[in-house]
Design a protein that fits this description.
With 201 residues, the protein is mainly alpha-helical. The protein folds into 2 domains: 91 residues; 108 residues, no CATH class. 75% of the residues lie in helices and 4% in strands. It has 8 helices and 2 strands; from the N terminus they run H-E-E-H-H-H-H-H-H-H. It has a two-stranded antiparallel sheet. Helix 1 packs antiparallel against helix 7 and helix 4 runs antiparallel to helix 6. It holds the Pfam family IspA. This is Inner membrane-spanning protein YciB.
Length: 201
């Protein structure tokens, strides 16, 4: 199997986070305005979505070209952004794009739950290179991540259905990534307790 090629961390971060940051900036500048394209008026949210889709496609393709590999979550995110973002633009209805995080989190929660039920270590296959752990550690982490994704799906549904578009964009841009980071920080003891010994230990 071909090893993924290494790229500079700042370039990787730019390609992964740049499209989301651009979406946030465009939305914040255009949220009180409408844009007319081919005789149809679009809200600032829809216009930001229209900008976000091709930029995400380009950055994901660039990441694949530079590294030779994409994570399953990156592929799933790209597909769902194109489908649901495209529906939001086509139908001029923002709810489809807002539902995208819910759907992707439910998909991953379902996959992780299935891996536990089938006694398969699918999460370890994806993350073992970066986070070598024992099988017991992976089982615990898989269960916790399945619950995390379920919680994030519920949280996304609550925010977009009950709060303003600005609140949802802030939640999507900053809240969801911070919750993910917080999850891994809270599980630091798990990683330490179930880490595989390094060579020579």
């Amino acid at each position: 199997m071909t090893e993924p090629r290494k790229i500079k961390p700042w370039l990787k971060a730019t390609l992964e986070l740049g499209p989301l940051v651009l979406f946030f900036v465009v939305f914040m500048r255009m949220r009180e305005q409408t844009v007319t394209i081919a005789g149809t008026e679009y809200s600032g949210f829809i216009f930001a979505t229209l900008v976000f889709i091709p930029v995400l496609v380009a950055s994901t393709l660039a990441l694949w070209r530079l590294t030779g590999k994409l994570a399953p979550m990156q592929i799933a995110t790209l597909v769902l952004v194109v489908v649901f973002g495209g529906l939001s633009v086509w139908l001029n209805d923002p709810k489809f794009f807002k539902m995208k995080p819910t759907i992707i989190y439910l998909i991953f929660a379902g996959l992780l739950g299935a891996s536990l039920a089938l006694r398969r270590n699918w999460l370890g296959l994806v993350m073992a290179e970066a986070l070598p752990m024992s099988d017991a550690g992976w089982r615990i982490l898989t269960g916790r991540m399945a619950l995390l994704f379920l919680g994030l799906a519920v949280a996304n549904e609550f925010v977009w259905r009950n709060m303003s578009e600005t609140a949802w964009v802030n939640f999507k841009t900053f809240g969801l990534p911070l919750l993910m980071v917080g999850f891994f920080i809270l599980n630091a003891k798990l990683f330490e307790r179930h880490a595989l010994p390094k060579d020579g230990e």
